[in-house]
Every structure is written in C-alpha cells, then in structure tokens.
Amino acid sequence: MSKEWLNRVYVCTKPFVFMVFLQTSYAVNGLVVKSALNKGLNHYTYSVYRSAIAAFFSGPFAFLLERKIRPKMTISIFLKIMLLGLLGPVLNQNLYFAGMKLTTATFTAAMFNMAPVITFVMAWIFRLEIVKMKSLHSQGKIIGTLVTVGGALIMTLIRGPFIQFPWTNHHTLHHQTSVNTFSTQDQIKGSLMITASCFCWAGFVIVQAFTLKSYPAKLSLTALVCMLGTLEGSILTVVAERANASIWAISWDIKLFATIYSGIFCSGCAYYMIAVVIRERGPVFVTAFNPLAMVIIAVFGSFILGEKLNLGSVLGAVVIVVGLYVVLWGKSKDQNQQDEQHCDGMKTLVLKDNLVESCEKTSDDHNYV
Question: Which helix (H) or strand (E) holds 118?
C-alpha cells in the first residue's frame, strides 16, 4: 500500500471518523451530565466551566501550531466570534441542558435530531445550500424537513404507555424514579427549550461556516470562541442566579467529571472537528450524524439511569430520523452532482491546457522549419 493510497483513504474517511467520534462523545456526555443534573449540577456554571476548560485545552495548541497562519484580527471577525461564543457555549448549552433537566437524556437526544433540518433551512436561506424546486432531490429535502417537524410535534404532544426493555428491570444500576415521572407540562417546556437549542446550534454552525472563510485558523477560532463563551456565560450566570454564590462551588464528584470531560471532548475537540468538516463537507453534513448519539443514549440511558421511553417518544424519534435521512438523501444527490460538475470542469481545463500545449508545439515546429 503506497503512501498516496493511504493519504487518499484518510482524506475520504476523515469527516466520517470525526463525526462518529463526536457523536459518541456527545452521547457519553449526555448520560454523564444528566446524572450530574440529577445530583444538583447548575447548568449555568456548568456551561461557564466547560468553556473555560475548553479554552485552556485548545489555547496552547492554537498558539504553537497556528502562529504563522493565523489571520489578522478585524472588527468584523471579532464580532462573528462573539456571536459564535453566544450561540454555542452560552445559549445552546444552557437551553439544551435546561431542557434535559426537565425531561430525560434520551428524549433530549431524540428532539435534537431537528438540528440538521433547521441547519438545512438556514443554509438554504443564507445560500450555503442549493435548492431547485423542480429537482426531485430538492423536493426530498423539503419533504424531509416537514416530516422532521411533524416527528418533533409527536414527541412533544403524545405520550402513551411506557416501553419496557429487557434490561430495564428493578435492578437497574442507578434507578431514579424522578427521571421517569416528569409531567406533561415539564415535557412541553423542555421540548421548547430543546427546540430553541436546535436553532442556536444551527445558527452556530452557519455562522462558523461564514467565519471560516475569513478566519481559517481552526484551533485559534476554537480557543477564541471558548474564551468569549466563558466571559459571556459568566455574565449570564451572574444575571440569572444573582447572589447565589454556592453554585460556583466545585467538589470531587460526578459534576466535576462531567465538566472536565465535556470541556475537553465536547467543546475543545468538538469545535475544531466541526470546523474541519464544515470546510470539507458543509454545515448540513456536520449535523447529519445526530441519530447516532440518540441510539447510544437510548440504550445506555435506560440501563444506567433507569430511563423509560413512552410510545409517543419512540414514534416521534422514528419519524424524525426518517425525515432527517430524506433530507440527507437529497443532500447526497446534490454532493454527487457538484462532484460531477467539478470533475467535468477539471477535464475541460485539462483538455484546454493540452490543446494550448499542442498548438504551441505545432507553432514552434513550424518556426523551426
């Protein structure tokens, strides 16, 4: 096997490997943070500490590895980074985990499958995504969007009987009845928070796609987003919690582990990987792997946290995944079409170059004669 072949395999598989690693990290994080929330973790301070750890983790790598390629900072770039810090580390995380606190880790992960569709709609609005109304695959993307929204409504409004898995008996590892008995009011409130979180995450991915065009230093962008997210999150926490200083206390328990783990893997590593994949495959591809996290959380959440799924949640999750993959089918057809057009363009350029070289050679031969 030649180095050229290995390099080609690496380039082709890198976006998929990054996204699978990312969704696995998110799934583990969802279970750990849900357990920490049940034990009193404050989502405001969690978001601040997570962003601070991510900044400390990615900062040295950005300073050493991107010293020569880091673009000059401008007011426009700084404002975009400020917006990224607000959308991702502050609004998305606080809304997501506030919604999780009112529901379950599995329900939250399933609802978050709306994010790819919202990302697609926003990418379409900002012309990062091509939609041709007469094209079959573009119609598929629109239909998939509507189906996904319908699945989210099913999850929110329909409950039904609980579904018992073989491993969800009375001997679950950490059986927590409070997790399984959230009210309909909590479910609706949590659903609204998670939906708002999806919009924030989609906005984060779209703004990052624009920011990378003028600031392609991915590690530096990650560090700056986390630094500003720490500052903005601290201001939000002070305003929301006011004089409650006890929420800032840190102890050696699951809450500290959740913060460190998510800071390193789900912010520090994640934002960098997302930036890499956005540059190669676009913003919609980044959010396409969300169902993987849902499956992992559904299995281990029922086993570790004693969570139970009701019929409405399962039906809604299935509808969301079907709608998501209809959107992705249309997206893949677009990608294939763009690749074919790129190849045709390259072939045309090569033919033109060969024709010019041939003409120049013929001219030189005539001049020589």
Answer: helix 115-125
131-174, pLDDT tens digit by residue? 777 788 778 878 887 887 788 778 777 778 877 666 555 444 44
Structure tokens at 227: 């630094």
CA distance 197 to 114: 10
Taking the C-alpha atoms of residue 80 and residue 62, their distance in angstroms, rounded to an integer, is 18
| Residue closest to 147 by CA, chosen among 331, 315, 332 | 315
Q: Quote the strand ranges of 9-62, DSSP E.
A: none
Nearby residues of 295 by Cβ (< 8 Å), 6 or more positions away? none
From 195, 305, 233, 294, select the one nearest 82 (Cα to Cα).
Answer: 233
Residue 95 · residue 200 · CB < 8 Å: yes
Q: What is the C-alpha separation between 292 and 308, in angstroms, rounded?
A: 19
Length of the chain: 369
Q: Which residue has the tokens 């999150």?
A: 233
Determine whether 289 is exposed, middle or buried from the number of CB atoms within 10 Å of its CB (0-12, 13-18, 19+). buried
Q: What is the pTM for the complete model shown?
A: 0.79
Distance CA 353, CA 277 (A): 32
Classify each residue of 136-149 as buried b or exposed e, where b means 16 or more C-beta atoms within 10 Å of its C-beta.
ebbebbbebbebbb
